[in-house]
Amino acid sequence: FDWHSWKYSFVGDEYSYYDLAKKIAYGDIGLKILYADGIAGYHPVFTGVLQAFFIRLFPDFFGWRISAAIIPALGIIPLYIWVKLLFNKTTAKIAVVSYIFAQPMLAFAHIPYNTIYGILPFVFGLFCLELAIRKNSYIWTYLTFFSLSMGFYTFYPAIFTAFLAGIYYILHPLRSKYNYRKILLGAIFYFLIILFIIMDDHFTYSLSKNSVFGRAEFPTNYKKIYILTNFIYAFFSFIKDIIPSHFIVGALVDYITGFGVLVGIIWSILFFKRDYRTKFILLSYITLVFFIGATTHHRHPPNTRLNFLAPFLAVVGSVGLTRVLSFLS
């Protein structure tokens, strides 16, 4: 990639992220890590701190841009191990390839928004949760809740990873061997971490401003219609992206993965009562689509939010493709 090319600099508010990170890197503003008055007055400041770290580590502009490629890439190994533990090695390999080549991964590697950073807490959180349950471990429990809490400090849609973790735990066949005391202590740890940011007025302002339940771009009397249509748009974003933007055109994933997602969803419906993993796939996907897509204050779900679906679509797509390979073999 030519990181300095003007072709990757046309998104209007991109400079705001660079400006904040640069000011933090060179000490022009303080390290307000636990606050939510970053970009536009309501984004978490922590993501600016992350970008500032890369600016100090690498040459200024290059460091800022490379941060958007490195941070999501850190999710590759935990994604592989998690899917391998949940399914098998073949499914894990396909999931990683689909994840790497998903349009949001490639697109936002050129646009260092903080929207891409929320993917790491999502992937790492579920990976840690699987190990916490299997090993009945305090360490992995604390790592799970720490990762889930980072959703509040990266990009707000990552907050809803906690819902997925809850679904995952309830459905997991080994949950009875997992000590409740560990969950309680982990939950306390989680709330202590997020306490700082949820007490910030900028955080509550963001939730009200950027959801259909607060400010909206459409008339209030059409709210239910837009919630429904945006749910449908988000649900089928693996086939068609309604509003091309931020270098994402067509669909969130490639055609092969998209086909796998369709097969994976059908498989999950057909075997919903027989396999706990099918329940997790369907319930989690519906939950994500609702919170990420249906509750947006925009007329259509924006790619800055839909990119959060990319790792989950990669997993569902890999499940569907391995089912096809198994059928053909």
Describe this protein's structure.
This protein has 329 residues and is mostly helical. It is 62% helix and 0% strand. It has helices spanning 14-25, 46-57, 60-73, 76-86, 89-100, 103-107, 119-135, 138-149, 161-171, 180-198, 201-209, 223-235, 255-270, 276-294, 303-306, 310-328. α4 crosses α7 (119-135), α8 runs parallel beside α10 and α13 crosses α16 (310-328). The chain is globular and about 60 Å long.
**Overall morphology:** globular
| Number of extended strands | 0
Separation, N- and C-terminal Cα atoms: 39 Å
Oligomer: single chain
Structural class: mainly alpha
Query: Can you write the helix and strand succession as a string?
Result: HHHHHHHHHHHHHHHH
Please compute the radius of gyration using only Cα atoms.
19 Å
Task: Put the structure in a nutshell.
The protein is an all-alpha fold and 329 residues long.
Structure characteristics:
single chain, 329 residues, mainly alpha
Could you outline the blueprint of secondary structure elements for this entry?
Layout: H1 14-25, H2 46-57, H3 60-73, H4 76-86, H5 89-100, H6 103-107, H7 119-135, H8 138-149, H9 161-171, H10 180-198, H11 201-209, H12 223-235, H13 255-270, H14 276-294, H15 303-306, H16 310-328
